[in-house]
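Possible regression after last week's pipeline update?

I re-ran a chain I had predicted before the update to compare outputs. Posting the input and the new output here so someone can diff against the archived version. Not blocking, just want to make sure nothing changed silently.
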Amino acid sequence: MFRNWTQDDRVARYCRWYPHKDISETEWFLKNCCLGAEYSWAITLIGKDEPIGGIDVVGENDVGVPEIGYVLAHEYWGKGLMTEAVQAVLKELFRCGFEKIGACHDINNPASGKVMEKCGMTYVRKSMALKKFGSDEQCEIKCYEISRP
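New output (post-update):
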């Protein structure tokens, strides 16, 4: 995680966490955020045993719809990998019994919205959210949802 994305300013720009300064921050983040998640996946390349990103159910939105969040190492942006990963996770979450799934992105990161649209998600609203954990700064987000087919 640290080598591939948590220390990268380009990746952290649109995430709710600041770039990690050293591996101990990533270790803390992993222990306190990711490992407790009931639905959490690492993204890897076929035949490789190194994570290049992740997808998690990060909570519920204000109307009780579970939301996913995702991240990918910068060198893999724009190659269709996140769309493939999100499609697989949505399929698995629906298989597990979820009826509706949501996702949101910072309006300054329209590529993330394109991933959501390619995965069949529909725009539902704009909202405001904390830009970074531990900050009072807000950012505008676009929210999408998809219902079980």
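Follow-up from reviewer: compared with the archived run. Residues 100 and 147 are 4 Å apart (CA to CA). Marking as no regression found.
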